[in-house]
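Quick start: what a row looks like.
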Amino acid sequence: MSLSEIIIQKIHNEGPIPFREFMEMASYYPGLGYYTSDRDNIGKKGDFYTSSNVTSAFGDMLGKQLEEMYHILGERKFTVVEMGAGMGLLSMDVLEYLKKNAELYRDLDYCIIEKSPAMQKEQRNRLGNKVRWCNSIHELSGMTGCIFSNELVDAFPVHQVVMGDELMEVFVDHNGGFLELLKPASHELKEYLGELGVALPYGYRTEINLDAIKWIEDIALSLKKGYVITIDYGYPSPELYQEYRDRGTIMCYYRHTENEDPYRHIGEQDITSHVNFSALERGGSKNGLKLCGFTDQMHFLMGLGIEEYLMKLQENEPENYLKKMLPVKTLMMELGETFKVLIQNKGLECKGLSGLNFESRWMI
């Protein structure tokens, strides 16, 4: 039975399901969901690229920020948790950079939390025995170090809502094809917008990512002392809920093409939505995380010395400079403003992070 048939059967047996449940099944249904099947999802053979697919420079710069955090913390053991490591390319680049610091590498405990069996297999084949895998952040309760993610939160299943005479939630039904209907939204969904001070105009459609709130709460409770770095595409609330985004931000990626229809290629296309960084900041602050700063990827990389990186590259590898410089340009120019970087911490002062040296125009 195909995944589409499984979802249709569920709807016929139980009635219309929330869009969030549909998206969760399409993305994570065991063995058939987009992230749980054996398909090549990332890279040339897949449906999209990540920053780590573009150039190893991204991992070098992130490694540099982690090294700085290690020195600020001043602890003997330094735990780095990567949540959702994809093909393991970013992990590999970060570890290659950290290996240059013998003391740090000795103290390093590098853990990956990965839901996808196919991606975990890819990671194990690519990475050495310096890495271990955990099933949940709860296994690392009381840790000191840094928890980071790159393009993870955008793939969490989301509720879709539409503002009518009251807030309504989108449900998915089936009658000869998938169709949508509206039901009154839960108190939890209304409270989400209320806490952020968001008043949607009549007819406005958008997403609410309650899973992201639970995710940042779990991180905050598991971290004893250290940092959280969240890298993804999205905006703070004032920008996310602009009038021109009144149809929401759901995007689907299938074989390097984009569409806005989650009801086709079920289990074979990536369904994403823009991250609300204001919600992540608020969810973290309610559970002990302090805001260190919020910037875009371009300014984050500039603060960590990407320009010096390029100068050294030109000096040391002039014959390969153009080949290696162009992907960095893509990282900076094409992806630089699209992706944002939120840094939060717990148990220490928010100061001295090079990745936050340059302000961006985005205010959280």
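That is the whole record. The longest helix spans residues 57-73. The longest strand covers residues 223-235.
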